[in-house]
Every structure is written in structure tokens, then in C-alpha cells.
Amino acid sequence: MSKAIKIILLLAGAFFLVAVGIVIINWSRYQIMPMATTNYGYDVGYAPSGVMAESASLGMATGLSALDAGSAVRTFVSKVVSPQVASVNSVSAPEMSNTTDRMVVKVGSLSMVVTDVNETIKNIADYAYKQNGYVVSSNVYKRGLSPYGTLIIKIPAKSFDEGLNEVKSLGEVVSDSVNGQDVTEEYVDLDAQLRNLQATEKQFLTILAKAEKITDILAVQRELTQVRGQIEQLQGRMKYLRQSADMSTITVDLSTDPSVLPSVDNSKVWKPWAEVKTAARALVEVGKKLVNQLIWLVIFVPIWLVIGLVVWVVVRVVKKIRGKGKFKLE
Predict the structure, then answer these.
(1) What burial class does residue 186 get, using C-beta atoms within 10 Å of its C-beta: 0-12 exposed, 13-18 middle, 19+ buried?
(2) For 160-168, what is the mean pLDDT?
(3) CA distance 90 to 311
(4) What global pTM score does this model have?
(5) 63 in helix, strand or coil?
């Protein structure tokens, strides 16, 4: 085997080891770094536990299984509940009149260039507090050399337009958008469903007071648990809609450098200086990633030494075996 081929094979092997090492390092970093999760939602509640616990205790005391209670639902409730609940279904959704106040969820977004990011965030937060609002979140950091901040506030819906104008007066607006969602129809529909379920609950309570058998009591309580769970879910959703309509949301992105701000401007104006800044930031990010990889490579030096030692031993053994074979042939 020529010397050039040996060098090529050694380089290929080294490249392979480095590639494997990078894969191992990235896998290790993924395993070590915690996964950040954020949960945004609204808790609408579930069925109360008191009735469920009472039903369970009755079932244990009488030796009834869940299957027995389930069959009792169809037997007892079908005989007694159906005639009394029939009138409940006649409850219909109240029609929306022209005088009904509309429930509109308003959301505004602004991107602005300001002189001082921190000072502007403070001024916006102070304004929100004066309007009986509050700050949902506030973040300040740097993109390259330019400070950048994001602020989300909630203020009363009646002050939404005034709030937008107040925020706009604190800097140069790069882009802005306002969206509104009418949830009046959904709210009225939920209210009708709630009325039906509350009427059904009253009928079940009346039946429960008349029940004498344990199986009948368990059957009605099981139905009550389901109805109350649905009532709490509807009440939670309605509360969320009321709060969303009463308190409008304004999101503000701030920076001293307009090139780092998100924009809804679709114009195709060439901005060479902005491109230079973007390219410089990209170069810095690439440099950071290379340095990070180098740090991990250095940390994993012991592994490279072990791998290199194993390869060296294998090569030495193979050479000795080949040398002995040639000696015997001679």
C-alpha cells in the first residue's frame, strides 16, 4: 500500500471520528439541556369531587359496582327523570337584540423605534397601571449590539384606542395592526346551554330528595356529577370570554435599531445598511456556534484519547501479526 493511500485513509478515519464525536456531543447536549415548556390555557374546572366521593362511599357500603350503578341510571332515571326534565329542553337561547352590547376581543400589535427601550417599557407599564390594567409579560435583551424589548399589557377595552395612541406617542411606529373578534354569539349560545343544564340540575335534585333505594341515589348522583361538570366548564368558558372582552391586549416590540424589529411592511425597498447589519449578526451567531462546538470537543478530549489509544493498539497488533507472518515465510 502506497504512502499516499495510507494518508488518505488516515484522514478519512479522522474525519469519521470527528463526525461521530460531533453527533455524540449534540446528542449529549440534547439529553443534558432541560426542555423548556410553556403552557398557556384557561382552566375551566371540572366536576366537584364531593359528590363523586359520596357516590363512591355509598357504592362501597352497599357492595354495588360501577356497572350496577350504571344500569341503575337507565332504569331509575328513565322512569322518573324523563317526564320531569322534558320541559327543560324547551329553554332556548335568548335572541340577540340590536341593543345588546357586542362582546369584542380586541388585540393590538406595535413595532416601534425608541431612544431608550427600558425607559419606554417603564412608561407603558405605568400607563397600564393607571388605566387599571396590568403587565402580562416584559422582556428586554440584545440582538447584536442593539437593545430589544417586548411588552404585553392588558387594559380595559374602553381605553383601547386611547392606549394605542398613548403608546404610539412614545416613539416612531414601524408597523402596527389591530384585530377584533366578536364573541357575542358564542357567549349567548353558552348562556342558553348553561340555563338548560341548571334547570336539569334542579330536576335531578328534586328526584334525589324523593329517592329511597341506594341504587336510585347512586344513579341520580352520577347524573348530577356529569351535569355539574358541564355547568362548571360552561361557566369557565363564559368567564374567560367576559374577561377577554373587558380587557384588551396590546403587544409592543421596541428597539433602538429598526432593522431588528418585526414588521408587517411588505414594501420591497432595498435597505443595504440593514442587510449589512443582518449579515454581521449572522456572522456573530455562526462564530458563537463554532466556539460552542469547540468547547464541547475540548470537554470530550478524554474520549478522543481513549479512541485514539484503542486505534493505536489495534494498528500495533496488526503490524506485529503481519511482521511475524512475513518472518515465517522467509
Answers:
(1) middle
(2) 92
(3) 84
(4) 0.48
(5) coil
